[in-house]
Amino acid sequence: MSDINNNGFSFVKTLLNAWSWLFLALILAFFEIYAQVETGSTFIFRAYNIQSVAVAASQILLLSLGLTLVVVAGHIDLSIAFTTGLAAVAMALTVRLLGDANGWVVFAVAISVGMLAAVVVGLVNGWLVAYLDVPSFIGTLGTYGIARGVALIVAGGATVSIRSEEVRAFGNGDILGIPVPVVMALVLAGACHYLLTYTKFGIYTYALGANRASVERAGVDVKRHLIKLFVLSALTAGIGGLVYTGRFSAGAANAGEPILLYAVAAVFIGGASLTGGQGTIIGTVIGAIIIAVIQFGLVFSGLPPYWQFVAVGLVIVVAVLVDQSRDKFLGGAK
Amino acid sequence: MKPILQVQGLAKRFGAITAVKDVNFDVYPGECVVLAGDNGAGKSTVIKMISGVHLPSEGKIIFDGQDITNSPPETVRNVGIETIYQDLSLADNLDPGLNLYLGREKMKRVFGLPVLDRKAMQADAVEVLKGLGIKVPDPGARVREMSGGQRQSIAIARAIHWEAKLVIMDEPTAALGVPEQREVMALIDRLKQRGVGIILISHNLPDIFAAADRIFVLARGVIGGERRPSETTDEEIVRLMMGATIDT
Ligand SMILES: Nc1ncnc2c1ncn2[C@@H]1O[C@H](COP(=O)(O)OP(=O)(O)OP(=O)(O)O)[C@@H](O)[C@H]1O
Ligand SMILES: [Mg+2]
């Protein structure tokens, strides 16, 4: 009889797996103490702060949810930055074209057109990676450029502002007091979590990230699976664009560009690994919240806003270091 | 008793290269047949034709009385031939249960939603591994955290669980330490006791003699000889592997 060896680093292991939660607690404590000492007020327990952080985290999350699935499968999707922009512009242009006479009908058509634009980008990404064997980093960098160019061309290089009560309500309304963008992000996070953790689709995604041969052997059509992953990634990013158009009553080609770095960072802070096979939606949610807290906290404490780039950059480096030491501890016998 | 597998006049050409030709052998239930041969002899080519990865250029493959010569890999697996490749085709980041069921997962319903039944699959994996003499203290642990021999046992458990009648193993001990090599040899014995036929690919003499009921030696794409371990010696097998085809 032989036992399956349990390696003895369980404490370190738990710590490395939960570091993002600890880190979030730490920065929250930091800003809270800062607020108490400097201004004698609270940072955490103020509705306005919570809402601001939640909305910022949602905007990041919409780009990083689908990305998490792609990264777990061992790939990357850089095009999401401009898939967001393309969807935002497509939605805004549709409203402008159809006018705002038939409010909800136009709204529904505009949403569909925006999603369709996103799906096209996802299909192209999937086709490049699955059927032409283009490395996803290069392939999606290509579609990043194409989506950017197309969005700028159709928008005439400008921001497409619109006047629509429905679109405005979509971006700025609330459901039971929770802002619509936050509700959207939460619902999509729930759906992606279900998909990744409780379904065959999720298991094949993890297995694909670890060993493509294992999934092929299981009789799964890997090419189709890859296409589905890239379409999902484009879809969540596209929804991010729709939310953007809703929030600002305008579509802009660069709607997603400033948050690409944050979206990618959220996925890796959340425990995903560049080599694939790892990562969770809950982790990505925590990652997005960490970044939003840093962004808002720095503004709140009156530091020049540029510090957020430095801070988020540092967190990314820490995330990579943690990932590497985790490999050392959890690698086991191979 | 009738053979579970018959290979008749099998040949494979890759363009102008003839990788193997005129390969004939059979495997009986509960028997371990070793395909021995030096690097490039054509061993992997032969088993890839059996498992449906390569189409044979010539010849016939008959399994359990059924002609499976041109069947795709899924069909071959479904009729009861499990092939364990050198990389084991395991997903390292999943637990033994999910690896056992990969592609045929057990599902259940929670609030009407279909979800993976991880617990049931883990329990089945523990059960099958117990039958192979492997204890699993943590059924939820990832396969990555297990030893090479135990990982091999999961690949074998998969064959047993899905009731394979023939298991093909391509150099299963190549990447293992000595104790783990012994574990794998013990696993092969257990498979034989269950009446499973085995094709073992190896060029490691101790393994060949420990596991084989019959040895077929491939050299440069042709079978140079068939021997029983009790009727041959290390030297003779090596000589055959080097390509001495004259029977002495
Ligand atoms: N797909 C292929 N295309 C062209 N030639 C091939 C292909 N696969 C195998 N060969 C050739 O066929 C011959 C037999 O190869 P094979 O892989 O079957 O040998 P092997 O006995 O398994 O060797 P090893 O012990 O190194 O695994 C070699 O000369 C090899 O180069
Ligand atoms: Mg080989």
From TrEMBL, chain B:
Q: Which InterPro entries match?
A: AAA+_ATPase (IPR003593), ABC_carbohydrate_import_ATPase (IPR050107), ABC_transporter-like_ATP-bd (IPR003439), P-loop_NTPase (IPR027417)
Question: What are the recorded GO MF terms, alphabetically?
Answer: ATP binding; ATP hydrolysis activity
Q: What Gene3D superfamilies is this protein classified in?
A: P-loop containing nucleotide triphosphate hydrolases
Sorted alphabetically, the keyword list is: ATP-binding, Nucleotide-binding, Sugar transport, Transport
What positions does the domain ABC transporter occupy?
5-245
> Any coiled-coil ranges, and where?
none
Q: PANTHER family, per this entry?
A: CARBOHYDRATE TRANSPORT ATP-BINDING PROTEIN MG119-RELATED (PTHR43790), SUGAR ABC TRANSPORTER ATP-BINDING PROTEIN (PTHR43790:SF8)
Full protein name: Simple sugar transport system ATP-binding protein
In which organism is this protein found?
Answer: Sagittula marina
